[in-house]
Write a structure and sequence with these properties.
Blueprint lengths: L2 H12 L4 H8 L3 H9 L7 H11 L3 H5 L11 H11 L4 H8 L3 H9 L6 H11 L3 H5 L20 H18 L2
Length: about 180
């Protein structure tokens, strides 16, 4: 097992969730959730990592092994309201811009509903932020983790994993 699989299992267990709970949240079979943990599925989709991070209240980068701080206390509902207010928009105005109902925006802000991936992308594009920024508590909106190796001392294995992830993301463009 690699770091991703271990962290998925450890986060699930620390939250007292069953494989069935995780599978239901992801909309997959329990066997698939087990295969994420065991490492049998080697290339977990980005969308799945984001969903797991949301369920586990951690950053996608933590699950991927790119950072060591797992806990996030931030809620999407707070972020979307904060962004809307910064642009001096009413819920009605934002709903029209995103082509959703006012009640949908209200439910997002009250934490009673979360957007699907397509709407999440539209929200991120509208506010010119990343999806990670919408889903996690961070004062930094880093749009590209994989291409920014910074001044860190990376091992050959870590750099290879970053390059692999970059290629995975690029391969999705071709589809």
């Amino acid at each position: 097992m690699n770091v991703v699989n271990v962290r998925i299992k450890n986060k699930r267990l620390s939250l007292n969730l069953t494989l069935a709970d995780v599978a239901e949240y992801l909309g997959v079979k329990e066997a698939t959730a087990q295969r994420y943990e065991s490492g049998e599925i080697k290339n977990i989709k980005h969308e799945t990592i984001v969903k797991l991070a949301n369920l586990f209240k951690c950053r996608p980068a933590y699950l991927m092994g790119w950072e060591n701080e797992p806990e996030v206390t931030y809620e999407f509902s707070e972020r979307i309201k904060e962004l809307r207010l910064k642009k001096n928009l009413t819920q009605t105005e934002l709903s029209k811009l995103l082509s959703v109902s006012k009640s949908t925006i209200s439910m997002y802000e009250n934490g009673n509903r979360e957007p699907d991936l397509k709407t999440l992308k539209a929200i991120a594009d509208f506010f010119n932020v990343s999806i990670d920024y919408l889903l996690i508590k961070s004062n930094n909106d880093i749009k590209t983790i994989a291409s920014n190796t910074g001044t860190e001392d990376w091992t050959k294995e870590e750099l290879a994993e970053i390059e692999s992830f970059k290629e995975f993301v690029k391969s999705k463009r071709k589809k």
